Amino acid sequence: MSDQPSKTALILGASRGLGLGLAREYLSRGWRVIATARENASKLEDLAKGAKDKLRIERVDITDAKGLAALRKMLSGETLDLLFVNAGISGSIPKPLHEISPQEATHVYLTNTYYPIVAAEALADLVKAGGVFAFMSSRLASVAMNSYGQWETYRISKAGLNMGARSFFWRHPSHPVLSVAPGWVRTDMGGPKADFDVETSCRNVANAIEQHGDKPGHRFVNYDGAELPW
Ligand SMILES: NC(=O)c1ccc[n+]([C@@H]2O[C@H](COP(=O)([O-])OP(=O)(O)OC[C@H]3O[C@@H](n4cnc5c(N)ncnc54)[C@H](OP(=O)(O)O)[C@@H]3O)[C@@H](O)[C@H]2O)c1
Questions:
Q1: CATH ID of 8-222, from 3.40.50.720, 3.40.1190.10, 2.60.40.180, 3.20.190.10
Q2: Which of 2, 32, 119, 203 has the least C-beta neighbours within 10 A?
């Protein structure tokens, strides 16, 4: 048995899908995990049953600034090795941008672009020196790889998140800041035809973070560890 204290990850948006999978993956690696849900935390509660005291469950909606401040207070005394902002929504994927309402576009941009950065900033002082900030991005965020156009609102939101993460990095230049693409994954968002199951994707994502999390800088990292074109 190692005497090393276990590392701690905070995962925002872990009630289901990739966030829940990441909580499970980091627990399996011996980490302590603080995982948040908006409302329904039943899957996290199930996971906690086999996790002894290694899983702490908290509540937050990342689009609630007061809730973020309350979470920061609740977590006083915690020291994070990894802060992973996973929460995100797809919005009206099939429709081109001009066919959705400004309200709907605003909702996607606020949830996927604005609030992930606001949330990371609200919690940033909990991350230890040299600790990792990860933002869940997507291959669809890459301007260079946009070869068929669709998923427009979502693409824009995640490309904006990548840019926000770059500016976030310049405010926190001693940290690795990673924009991570998990692959196309079978979740509620990814649907049943996607390439990867949650377990495989989360193992890959955790490996990619390990590979790129040892030095400061902002990188757009694929699930296989390759750096993606912006
Ligand atoms: N699946 C894919 O193929 C794929 C590919 C590339 C990137 N991604 C990204 O990976 C992340 C997770 O996606 P997923 O496939 O696991 O989707 P999902 O199954 O729909 O899960 C989304 C998660 O985000 C949470 N969430 C959404 N809005 C939130 C908010 N305002 N505050 C707090 N939590 C919120 C949800 O919580 P509730 O349960 O409360 O709704 C849920 O835990 C997203 O950022 C997504 O864009 C997914």
A1: 3.40.50.720
A2: 2
